[in-house]
Amino acid sequence: MEEEVIGMTLDLFHGPEEATGTMTSGGTESILLAVKACRDAARAHRGDAMHRGNLVLPSTAHPAFDKAALLMDLPVRRISVGVDLRADVAAMGAAVDADTIMLVGSVPCFPYGVVDPLPALSELALSCEVWLHVDACVGGYFAPFAREVGRPIPSFDFDLPGVMSLSADLHKFGFCPKPASTVFFRTAGPVAERGFDLDVWPSGRFTTATFVGTRPGGGVAGAWAVLNHLGREGYRALATRLLTMRDAYVAGIEAIPGLQIHGVPDLSILAFGGPKLDMGQVAAGMSARGWVPGMVREPPGLHAMMSLLHEPSREAYLSDLQASVAEASTRSGQSIRAVY
Ligand SMILES: Cc1ncc(COP(=O)(O)O)c(C=O)c1O
């Protein structure tokens, strides 16, 4: 079942003949394996088994990269995104030095839901000879279908020659039960790089494709069943519904005086705020009305990651949002920041 899942999904991401992939427990494990593969390939290439290469990330990249870097004792350079909230490729290029081993772009980033300019990052990666990882954990199983139904999603996968690895979570917009993520590598490379290949104990050679040892088969079987059930047609239909719903939310939010969407969200994650509003107060108002508001800090805003569960609640949400904004506006100047 895992082989069939990987076969179907590698095809979706335009994996070349020699590309390979594996299922993991989640985005964090997929990212950890990609960082390890990149570090080990760089060490082998340099002939320096102790090389501490650095990672250059947009400020919006998921903390799973820092987690991986922390475990492997690698330095991380987080680079501010541009005014459009997407990775600033020129600034990332300026941060690359002789010890840089990895560049990262997200599809989309979690805080604002915008896709990074992967074609330009691929060019940068090729010109600096640095590994490019695409973190499509949240949108990997949504973005290809958004493009197929006519939305402007740029190339982001192995079609781009600089992309060396890609993570995509089935248990997010693949609509599969947890735990289910995928990680892919452009070239097969040694197992020891992509996973673990150890010969250290009386029981002999010990290889694992992922970080963990024993793995739950339920997530694999669940993903296999969902992929076969939905098929590409099913995912296209979901993408159409999700994006129609997103457009309606965006229009409703922008119709509330004082609010604006942060950047131009590409899928169904968005953040919004208003320069004259205390978004902590707006969130407190939403919280008092029974919602569980997510927030972003910079620029201050409310955050929403929307699935089809949010389809029927749009009118109630927007009317409560309008009331919370009106309340916050009249209270401006006071210091009510408690939200949860
Ligand atoms: C962009 C992105 N990357 C990675 C992850 C980590 O995934 P997981 O929580 O499955 O480990 C997330 C989780 O939300 C994410 O949004």
UniProtKB/TrEMBL annotation:
Cofactor: pyridoxal 5'-phosphate
The keyword Translocase appears for this protein: no
Source taxonomy: Bacteria, Pseudomonadati, Pseudomonadota, Alphaproteobacteria, Acetobacterales
Keyword Lyase: yes
Transmembrane segments: none
Listed InterPro entries: GrpII_AminoAcid_Decarb, PyrdxlP-dep_de-COase, PyrdxlP-dep_Trfase, PyrdxlP-dep_Trfase_major, PyrdxlP-dep_Trfase_small
Protein name: Pyridoxal-dependent decarboxylase
Keywords, sorted A to Z: Lyase, Pyridoxal phosphate
Family: Belongs to the group II decarboxylase family. Sphingosine-1-phosphate lyase subfamily.
